[in-house]
Specification:
This protein is 8% helix and 50% strand. It is mainly beta and 200 residues long. It has a single domain, classed as Lipoprotein localisation LolA/LolB/LppX (outer membrane lipoprotein receptor (LolB), chain A). Strands 7-8-9-10-11-1-2-3-4-5-6-12 form a twelve-stranded mixed sheet, covered by helices on one side.
Length: 200
């Protein structure tokens, strides 16, 4: 249910189509590129990752670390440190978008309006400007790029209060892939020699 404050029915309809498309899949696997930039600080960092989503569950691989959320417990697995951190998924407490809500975060908490459209690799991308309703939010606004043909999200650009720009671009989007039932389950026997840090 979209709760943004807008008078543009075209935006609302497009977001509802995106949401319906996401909810029609059993699972989604995304390869993505994540870029963080701050020109005034002369910072540019780029990394790639992969996330598999199914309902509230997710498996996220980025920067050599895997985050596995089984719907109740978050396991952060660091092979480099040979450590597993076990905690509740507290991403709702942060000002960041939870991995499990990556494709539906815009449903509440934002005002939205139509922005520019661009051709990217032969695809028409319609941008929607999302402005947080919360005046204390750490981002000024976000631009959500939607492929008008597939109704899939193409990218998300966030502009922070400190002028930091983060861009998440979806490179590959696979749906309804066959996953074993244990895909989102943490198998402790695979990490018997790791340090287990239980925060709960």
């Amino acid at each position: 249910m979209l709760q943004g404050q807008t008078h543009d029915p075209e935006v609302k309809e497009l977001l509802q189509e995106v949401n319906a498309k996401v909810e029609s899949y059993n699972n989604i696997q995304i390869d993505f590129k994540y870029v963080l930039e701050n020109d005034s600080e002369n910072i540019r960092q780029e990394t790639r990752g992969k996330i598999t989503l199914s309902g509230d569950k997710y498996a996220l691989d980025i920067l050599g670390v895997q985050r596995l959320f089984d719907g109740e417990t978050l396991y952060t697995i660091s092979p480099e440190d040979e450590e597993v951190t076990i905690s509740k998924d507290n991403s709702e407490d942060d000002n960041t978008i939870s991995p499990s809500a990556l494709l539906t975060f815009y449903e509440s908490g934002y005002n939205y309006k139509l922005d520019i459209s661009q051709l990217k690799f032969g695809r028409k991308i319609q941008y929607i400007k999302l402005t947080p309703i919360d005046s204390e939010a750490e981002i000024k606004y976000a631009l959500l790029g939607v492929d008008t043909k597939t109704k899939h999200i193409y990218n998300l650009i966030e502009i922070g209060e400190n002028d930091t720009k983060t861009t998440l671009t979806i490179l590959a989007f696979k749906t309804n892939i066959p996953l074993p039932k244990s895909f989102f389950k943490f198998n402790a026997s695979e990490y018997y020699d790791y340090y287990i840090n239980n925060l709960d």
